[in-house]
Amino acid sequence: MKLYIAPGACSFASHVVVQELDLPVEVVTVSLTDPQGLHKQVSPFGRVPALQLDDGTVIAENTVILPFLADLVPGTSLFAPAGSVERAQIQSWLGYLSSEVHTGSFRPINRPGRYHADAAQHDQVRASGIALLRAALAPIAAHLQTRTWLVGERFTIADAYLGVFLGWLARAPGKPFKDETLDAYYLRYQQRPAVKVAADAEVA
Length: 204
Description:
- By secondary structure, this protein is of the alpha+beta class.
- 54% of the residues lie in helices and 7% in strands.
- The protein folds into two domains: 2-74 and 196-203, 3-Layer(aba) Sandwich (Glutaredoxin); 85-192, Up-down Bundle (Glutathione S-transferase Yfyf (Class Pi), Chain A, domain 2), CATH 1.20.1050.10.
- The chain is built from eight helices and four strands.
- A four-stranded mixed β-sheet has the order 2-1-3-4.
- Strand 3 (50-52) and strand 4 (58-60) form a beta hairpin.
């Protein structure tokens, strides 16, 4: 199998899970700015992450790739059994992070041109994205005030995904989203050996 990723992109979540599970997956680094990048040739959506199976089948999107990878190791603590409440809770967080945090908030912040053709309006678009992000992070911070991880008091694929966006926050100029609960959570995330290995590989 091959996992196509780009440094600094949301594909980091899938990269972390590959490392957590020690899966025999070749991690292929691509450039998002390369119009001829392999991910554009492999993924039906032309973006990362993209997971290419040995038979050539391609699976796209973190919300699908993360559960698929975890299911390759039956019984892993990164996920939960089919039909269980915990599995539904983990998938619920994946959906929320994808829709409200990533697409709903970070996309207008990072790519305001998608929302308004007039560059003079981009600051206003970003400001709207920042407001949306604050609102999206609020229930996450509240949930984590009494918990170490999102579900079941253990690191799961949902945490692998959340850590990506907290990393984006940590690099934001002026750190406009200071929250002690999220800061402590992100420190725990960074300290995981698999996260360190993936991060080092993406800057190598």
